[in-house]
């Protein structure tokens, strides 16, 4: 006789048959960080805990990491990220692409990269913000960029 | 050799012998014992390194109640394979802290190591690596699992990773609008 067959079903919550065990949020975050920027953001739409983790202030550290990953998928519309960890300066998300070159040279923005961000921000207006991210739209209205809003955390 | 040793002396000798051992014994949640090179364990796992340094390694099997035997076997297997492969300085000094360094690419043998694992075994292993503070193994397993996540919709991610949706319909719609570009970008 199968002893498991004797077990009353109502007493203990029986684990529902699942495709996989539930991973802790920090592990899911580690995985998501390696799946590229877009997938990382999509993960935030799966549950609240992941969204909190992804939009936490230390996303400021994740974005540079995703951007510098060879496999990291950074959307082409992500132009810059603000490095709040050390210097509060902008870094290019795609340092070696033609877009980046145009952005730097044609738009005379090179002086602002790796420097304070106040002047550069004047060229953009915020579209929406949530958690630690602000979506900015360039006043001409083509490119977009994401940056962590450091102000809230530092204040 | 001295036969009539005092008890204290014998104890002393045993302790020295333990300290000199070059392996540690780990015990899984279901009571199975595994031996692993002390050097590799200390190098690859911050938690085991701490236990070894702190003297909390039990010679009869250090209890790792959070890790099942299958996952622990894979952990030990990984440590042994790692000890046999030529470690590069970059791997040893790799840090999990949120630095700006790119993720390290798995080496060929590491890729094969995780490729042969079943879905469940891989998920158990990533949890074990996380619990033991094994940065490199966490890196390798997360890299592998991230392939299951890439390009998937939130619904598909929930299904694969057994994540419970705790959003209301309205909240989801709000997120969808906010992240519209991320949903249609590819």
Automatic annotation (TrEMBL), chain A:
SUPFAM superfamilies: F-box domain. It holds the Pfam family F-box-like. Gene3D superfamilies: 1.20.1280.50. Residues 21-59 form the F-box domain. It comes from the Eukaryota. Residues 1-22 are annotated as: Disordered. PANTHER family: OS08G0203800 PROTEIN-RELATED, OS10G0103633 PROTEIN. This is F-box domain-containing protein.
From TrEMBL, chain B:
This is SKP1-like protein. Residues 136-182 form the SKP1 component dimerisation domain. GO terms for biological process: jasmonic acid mediated signaling pathway; protein ubiquitination; ubiquitin-dependent protein catabolic process. Keywords: Ubl conjugation pathway. Signal peptide: none annotated. Part of a SCF (SKP1-cullin-F-box) protein ligase complex. Pathway: Protein modification; protein ubiquitination. Involved in ubiquitination and subsequent proteasomal degradation of target proteins. Together with CUL1, RBX1 and a F-box protein, it forms a SCF E3 ubiquitin ligase complex. The functional specificity of this complex depends on the type of F-box protein. In the SCF complex, it serves as an adapter that links the F-box protein to CUL1. The keyword 4Fe-4S does not apply. Residues 23-84 form the SKP1 component POZ domain. Belongs to the SKP1 family. InterPro entries: SKP1 (IPR016897), SKP1-like (IPR001232), SKP1-like_dim_sf (IPR036296), SKP1/BTB/POZ_sf (IPR011333), Skp1_comp_dimer (IPR016072), Skp1_comp_POZ (IPR016073).
């Amino acid at each position: 006789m199968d002893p498991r067959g004797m077990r009353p079903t109502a007493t203990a919550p029986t684990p529902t048959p699942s495709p996989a065990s539930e991973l802790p949020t920090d592990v899911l975050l580690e995985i998501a960080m390696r799946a590229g920027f877009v997938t990382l953001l999509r993960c935030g739409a799966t549950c609240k805990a992941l969204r909190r983790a992804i939009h936490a202030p230390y996303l400021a550290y994740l974005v540079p990491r995703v951007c510098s990953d060879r496999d990291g998928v950074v959307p082409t519309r992500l132009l810059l990220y603000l490095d709040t960890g050390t210097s509060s300066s902008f870094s290019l998300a795609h340092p070696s692409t033609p877009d980046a070159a145009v952005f730097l040279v044609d738009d005379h923005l090179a002086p602002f990269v790796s420097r304070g961000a106040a002047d550069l921000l004047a060229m953009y207006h915020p579209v929406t913000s949530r958690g630690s991210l602000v979506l900015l739209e360039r006043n001409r209205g083509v490119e977009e960029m994401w940056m962590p809003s450091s102000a809230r955390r530092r204040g | 050799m001295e036969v009539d040793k005092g008890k204290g002396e014998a104890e002393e000798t045993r302790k020295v012998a333990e300290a000199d051992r070059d392996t540690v014994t780990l015990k899984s949640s279901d009571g199975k014992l595994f031996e692993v090179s002390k050097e590799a364990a200390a190098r690859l796992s911050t938690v085991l390194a701490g236990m070894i340094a702190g003297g909390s390694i039990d010679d009869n099997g250090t209890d790792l109640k959070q890790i099942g035997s299958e996952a622990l076997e894979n952990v030990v297997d990984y440590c042994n394979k790692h000890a046999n492969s030529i470690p590069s300085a970059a791997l040893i000094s790799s840090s999990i802290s949120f630095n700006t360094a790119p993720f390290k690419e798995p080496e060929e043998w590491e890729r094969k190591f995780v490729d042969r694992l079943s879905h469940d075994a891989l998920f158990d292993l990533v949890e074990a690596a996380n619990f033991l503070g094994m940065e490199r193994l966490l890196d390798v397993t997360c890299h592998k699992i991230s392939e299951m996540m890439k390009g998937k919709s939130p619904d598909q991610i929930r299904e694969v990773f057994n994540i419970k949706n705790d959003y209301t319909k309205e909240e989801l719609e709000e997120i969808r609008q906010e992240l519209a570009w991320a949903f249609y970008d590819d």
